[in-house]
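ARCHIVE CARD
Drawer: 12
Card no.: 0347
Subject: one protein chain, sequence and derived structure
Cross-reference: see card 0346
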Amino acid sequence: MKILFDKVTILFESGEVQTEMYLMVTDKIITYIGKSRPKDAADRVLDGRGRVLCPGFYNCHTHVPMTLFRGYAENLPLSRWLHEKIFPAEDRLYPEAVRAASMLAIAEMLKNGTVSFSDMYFFCDEIVHCVADTGIKANISRSTVAFDPDIYAQKDERFQESVQLFEHYHNSADGRIKIDMSIHAEYSTVAASCRYLSEFALQNGARIHLHLSETAAEHKECLERHGMTPTEFFEKNGVFRVPVIAAHGVHVTDSDIEILKRYGATVVHNPVSNLKLGSGVMRLTKMLEAGVNIALGTDGAASNNTLDVQKEAYFAALLQKGITGDTEKLKSFEFVRMLTKNGAQAQGRADCGKLAVGGRADLVLLDFDKISIMPVYDACDSFLYSVNSGCVEMTMVDGNILYENGEYKTLDIERVKYQFQKVVHTYFE
């Protein structure tokens, strides 16, 4: 199958913009980008006038089944939000509920231009099947907690589930599905668990997904428990020997940032969730200056309340201008890179997150012929500050169109909504 985007404006992952371009997709791969029309005949030609084509978006920190709890626990700080509302509700989860909620989440993300997400949760087999069925990409990890300091791998049920998940599904669905290891957070784990999780990841080429210094209380209590920061705790216990996706990173020190840079960890900025739960604002400018890889995430729908990762780029840009007072330091292209190339790097997808011949055809087509965007002086700036999810016309993953002009190609959206509402009515009755 050959698809040609005809005379389209291209926004590259670097923020570079080129107009009147041709881009050819052959099966799963981008096979041509240029100013001249390619000689090969296409099975379908898409008119690119008034449209902008860019790499697909990466939502690098999610808990997709939490669409079930969207709007359920509002106006609470993180600790009360978790212990009074979310943890009790999660204790009642069952596989069918996770599947219904995950399908709704994937539908929302495809509509918003997301081509891949990094998820940390449980009942992960259900999430895997949803990803396989819908055609999206995902790095999936079984969230692990451990409170017994003498725990060891053979008796750790969550670790064993993680291993089985990895053995059954890692690099399945033609590589669309990757399985990561997960450490929920410093406050919910022990050193022994960190060590055997990281050792498994090291021996098997896996990555680790964790929460890091999300709140001031978490950071302070770790210092009191261990005499070190959460970042230092994870370093001491070997976690950074493998690629790490560290969500939040709101309350990290300068020395923490140096550790994260030294080991090549990715910090995932979740500005909306952090604001909503009163957790604070990540020092994005400082981390970028230090050379830390930064990706973007929505967190779960219970604390956001959407899964629109492009919106996170907008909030991240405004936040840094507001808290630093510097409106010039961070340019629009840096947020484009966070949404695309940096996210692919975080997930270990070297052939994704960019528009290049030979790369995977993970694309988003945006309608710039909207009154809320006009006029467009710079397409990169307009992308960051004027575009919203309503501008997404098409989401393509591995050359397959999964969403186009309100139509889903791999899921029955009415059935998805029906199954989800059925779970909601029974879950909270």
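Annotation on reverse: The chain has a mean pLDDT of 97. The longest helix spans residues 95-111.
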